[in-house]
Design a protein that fits this description.
This is Zinc finger CGNR domain-containing protein. With 199 residues, this protein is mainly alpha-helical. It is built from six helices and four strands, in the order ααααββαββα. Helices cover 49% and strands 6% of the residues. It is elongated and about 70 Å long.
Length: 199
Amino acid sequence: MDFIGYKSDALGAAVALVNAVTAEPDGDADTPPEQSGRRLRDLLVEHRYLAARAPASAEPALRAWARRLRTVFDATSSSEGACSALDVTAVAVNALLADVQIGPHLSDHDGQGWHFHYAPPEASLVERVRSTTAFAVAMLVSEYGVDRHGVCAAEGCRRVYADTSRNAARRYCSPACANRAAVAAHRARAKLKAGAGEP
């Protein structure tokens, strides 16, 4: 997905944040807060945010935002009465957009050349992450509906994915989960054939 010159991978950051914070319940329960906060900052740096010097105090807000972002991925399998999964997803996206500080402008900070920012110049790291990731999932849903994102289809996996590939066939968070699911399906078919007495 091309964000018209925006320097960070906002959609990748949204997926990575959701998975780091919500895919493993109590996964960070024994992790010291400073190490947990550093992990989130490193994750953002990997997605080209200038986050290395972000204060540790940003961690709780980033975690809360990751849980909010998850609502968009979870909504793909939701339907409430007459509402379609797309309707539920749109409501989730609009709730995110309503809560972000928007201030579009061009910036040339840190020698990166002029590029687009969604948050105002004085925005904190958390505000920048919130605005860019909210826009990223909004653009994904507006272009592709609910066909390009969701929760991994592998049994027992809670990780999420966003598919920006050409063929839009992704249903798993990783090749490892896709392979495990394929092996499990193959074994189930073999067992069914054996039970039916097929050669």
